[in-house]
Specification:
The protein is an all-alpha fold. Helices cover 71% and strands 0% of the residues. It contains 21 helices and no strands. The protein has helices at residues 6-26, 29-45, 51-71, 79-113, 128-143, 152-160, 162-165, 173-181, 190-224, 230-261, 279-283, 288-304, 313-331, 335-357, 363-382, 386-396, 406-411, 416-419, 426-447, 451-457, 462-476. Helix 4 (79-113) packs antiparallel against helix 5 (128-143), helix 9 (190-224) runs parallel beside helix 21 and helix 10 (230-261) crosses helix 15. The longest helix has 35 residues, at 79-113.
Length: 490
């Protein structure tokens, strides 16, 4: 089930929300959490019921491991606890590796050695990349004695809570579950509900009105057009950069908004990354909970693995590259993601070296370089193969063949607006519209307040309610064709 669908908005959400608070007030919080857990399981199984077995098995194994670590003794670093932790991590990584990376590794071996091992062409189970990382974090916290969950049902709710199950944020147990026990959160809260509705409406607008429309240009340039000229290539790459930006920020807003309706505060996961004036700051703003996970469970362990005591800048930079490579591979099972990870790893190294040298650098130039670096690297993120990478990147720098016109991309979706333009002016109109649109959105992502900032300014008055109503009604008229969120693919 998708957030941007009529069945979710008009059937699932109101039913679950109303019943949750009714049960909380009349039957008690235990049954209310059981209802929310059942709704979350239904939400996940609606996509493909078969994968409920995978999710349930993963939850059962991880919960059993956490209980076993708790019973292993009070010593935080006991040998038995360490063995259980290692086995739990290997289980989660192995599960993720089998379903997500098996064909990638087998295909790479076949290409390198000329073998013909069969590929499974297995569909990636929904949300496996997210619930696997969330449970690894829980296992490590359990090993350190930072969390103790004695209720299997509560642990299931922690993993499967539907607002954040599919694509994050990746949360820690201590961030979410204590909120369900707070007395004031068991009753309907009009302030949280209106704030949640605002975030949901803004997120839906970002996804349906902005991201999905940029997808038409990006898809045509990447997947359909046989060749591109310079302008077309830049419009193509920037269209995908904006598609991804508004798609993921839209999902993050919706997830936070939905949780707020249930009086649950999820951590911020997206904070205007295209305002960043450095690669370091970019990753402090993009996918914050994934960056936090990579920092805690990849970067810091690699940093501590150095045998010599004391800080080593060179080793810290090595740990940075390793961490970003893990981030790149996590996003997708392809060599393009491997190179994407290395690009950002070495970009961070250069950024750290520059800071260490304390050379002055204008803020506007830092933003310009960072934005374009991100845009160019996202060509690797989006392209299906190396031929597409070559087509787009070479055309961006003036080495393309040209050959198709922007009006083909605009008419690819058969938009009635463009049919009103005189045929002799198609190309000129299309080029002017595309260039002005991407430049307009460069200004939007650079200068405008984000949804969190707008939410802090929101008030219960007619102006904000009208703005929220418009932001909600416009995407509702465009939901005839429901499109997945991009991060569902990861």
């Amino acid at each position: 089930m998708l957030f941007n669908s009529y069945v979710f908005i008009f059937a699932f959400l109101p039913t679950v929300l109303l019943a949750y608070f009714f049960i909380n007030n009349h039957a008690g919080p235990r049954w209310a959490k059981f209802w929310l857990l059942s709704a979350s399981i239904f939400f996940y199984g609606y996509w493909n019921p078969v994968y409920l077995l995978l999710l349930g098995s993963s939850i059962a194994v991880n919960f059993t491991a956490s209980v076993a670590m708790e019973r292993a003794g009070e010593q935080e670093r006991s040998l038995l606890k360490k063995r259980i932790l290692i086995a739990t991590i290997l289980f989660n990584v192995g599960l993720l590796g089998y379903f997500k990376y098996r064909d990638f590794f087998v295909g790479s071996v076949n290409f390198a050695l000329g073998t013909e091992f069969p590929l499974l062409y297995m569909a990636l189970p929904l949300a496996i990349s997210f619930f696997s990382l969330q449970q690894i974090a829980f296992a490590v916290d359990s090993y350190k004695g930072l969390t103790q969950e004695k209720s299997f049902a509560d642990y299931m709710l922690f993993v499967s809570f539907f607002p954040q199950l599919i694509a994050g944020p990746i949360v820690h147990h201590k961030e979410v579950m204590p909120q369900f026990a707070e007395t004031e959160n068991k009753s309907f809260n009009i302030n949280n509900f209106t704030a949640g509705c605002f975030m949901f409406a803004v997120g839906l607008f970002k996804k349906v009105v902005i991201a999905d429309n940029f997808a038409g240009w990006a898809n045509y340039g990447f997947d359909v057009a046989p060749s591109l000229n310079v302008v077309e290539a830049w419009v193509t790459s920037l269209s995908y950069s904006f598609q991804l930006y508004f798609d993921f920020s839209g999902y993050s807003d919706i997830a936070i908004g939905l949780a707020l309706m249930f009086n649950i505060v999820l951590p911020l996961n997206f904070n205007s990354p295209y305002k960043a004036a450095s690669i370091i700051n970019l990753w402090q703003r993009w996918h914050l909970t994934l960056t936090r996970f990579i920092n805690l469970y990849v970067y810091r362990p690699v940093l501590r693995a150095r045998k010599q005591r004391g800080f080593s800048f060179a080793w810290a930079m090595f740990a940075t590259v390793v961490a970003m490579e893990v981030s790149g591979i996590w996003h997708g099972a392809a060599w393009t993601f491997v190179v994407f990870g290395f690009m950002h790893g070495f970009g961070l190294v250069i950024n750290h070296i520059w800071r260490r040298l304390k050379w002055p650098f204008p803020e506007w130039l830092g933003w310009f370089i960072t934005f374009n670096f991100a845009n160019i690297s996202l060509v690797l993120f989006r392209a299906q193969d190396w031929a597409t990478v070559g087509k787009v990147l070479s055309s961006m720098f003036g080495f393309g063949d040209g050959g198709f016109t922007l009006q083909k991309a605009l008419f690819f979706q058969d938009n009635m607006l463009f049919q009103l333009v005189d045929k002799p002016n198609y190309d000129l109109f299309a080029t002017a519209l595309a260039c002005s649109t991407v430049l307009f959105f460069v200004g939007i992502v650079r200068l405008s307040p984000n949804s969190q900032e707008l939410r802090e300014r929101s008030q219960l008055n007619w102006r904000w309610l009208l703005f929220q109503l418009i932001a909600f009604l416009i995407p509702l008229t465009l939901l005839q064709q429901v499109n997945q969120f991009i991060y569902f693919q990861f």
